C-alpha cells in the first residue's frame, strides 16, 4: 500500500514553509515515527515523522523547495520492507525525476541496482553505451569523480567565507536567507516603519542581585536543579513595573489600544537559525525557579529547532539580553504587536557615587524602547525607573511591597 506524506496544517499566520533536508533517500527503509524531513516555517522548524513503516518510494518535493499546508511531498510503500530493484521503478531521487524516464534510455537491472544503492541521478551520468546507454563502467567512473561538497544555507550563515584564501583574492559567497531570517528582516523593517520608536536609558546597580545569587546559588541549584540566573530577576522586575504602568504592557489594534490583564513575557533567544522569542506565559504567576527552568528549556530547544509555533506566538512585553555577547549599550527594536521591549547589557564595574563616597559597583545600562504612539515619555521613563528600583532592592520585589 502506498501512503502519502503531506505537509501538516500550518498555523493561520504561516502560509508557506521550506523543506530543509531529507533524512531518508528513495529506497531507504523507514520505521514508524522516523523523522523524514525538517520543515522550516518563518517561526520554527518542524519534524515530519513517518506515519507508517515501509520504504520511501518517492520524493516529490526536494530540499529547499517551498510547500504549503497539505501539500504532497513523498510516498511510502508499506508493503516493501527493504530497498529492492523493484523499488527503483517508482523511485524519484529528485523532484519530478523518474529513473525509467531519463533520456539515456532504459537501465539494465545491474545498472539500475547500482543507481538506487548509491542514490544517483542517471541524468548526471554520461553514458558510453549504444545510443548513450549507461553501463556499469559509466556508473563506477561517475562514483570515482570527486564530489563537490553541498553548501547548506544553515551551515554557512555564520561560517567563515573560506578556510584558506589566497592573498589578494576577493572572494564572495551568496547564501539565500532562511525563511526565519527573511521573516525577522520583514518584521524589524515593519516595526521601524509603522511604530514611533523611542528609547529611554537608565542604569542599575547589580550588586544586590549578585549578592543574592552568591549567597543562595548552591542551595537554589540543589533544591530546584537549575542555576539561579539574572533573567528571572529581570522578568520579575518587568512584571512589577508593568503592573504599575499598564500601558507599557498594551498593544495597538487598528484604532484601539488593548490593555492586557496578563503578563506574557517574550525572552529573546539566539539560535543557529536566528533570533527567536519564546513566551513565558503568565510570568507573574511563576517562581524564580520556574522562570529559570523555562528559559533553560527554551534555549536548549531553540538550539535544536524544537520550539513550537504556539510558544513563539503572542506576548505582551519582551526582554533582550545583549550582555551575554558583551554588548554595553543598544537600542532594542520592538517585537510587534508589542509596544515595549527591555534591553539588558553587560554588567561592568564602574566608579559611582554612593552615600557621598566613590565606590566600585557592577553597573548595567538598561534600555527601554517603546511605541510613542501610545506610551508617553512619562510612563516609559517611570516604568524603567521602577525596574531599576526593583533590581536594586530585590527583597522588596520578592515580597511585593
Give an overview of the whole structure:
The protein is an alpha+beta fold and 401 residues long. Helix content is 27%, strand content 24%. The strands form 5 sheets. Strands 9, 12, 15, 16, 17, 18 and 19 form a 7-stranded mixed sheet that branches. It is elongated. The model is unreliable at 82-103 and 148-157 (pLDDT under 50).
Summary keywords:
401 residues, 27% helix, 4-stranded antiparallel sheet, 7-stranded mixed sheet, single chain, 24% strand
Q: What helical percentage do the residues reach?
A: 25-40%
Distance between the termini: 67 Å
Radius of gyration: 28 Å
- β-strand amount: 15-25%
Mean pLDDT equals: 83
Number of DSSP strand runs: 19
How is the main sheet built?
Answer: 7 strands, mixed
N to C succession of SSEs: EEEEEEEEHHHHEHHEEEEEEHEEEEHH
Q: What structural class do the secondary elements suggest? A: alpha+beta
Indicate the overall shape: elongated
* Number of discrete helical segments: 9
Outline the low-pLDDT stretches. Answer: 82-103, 148-157
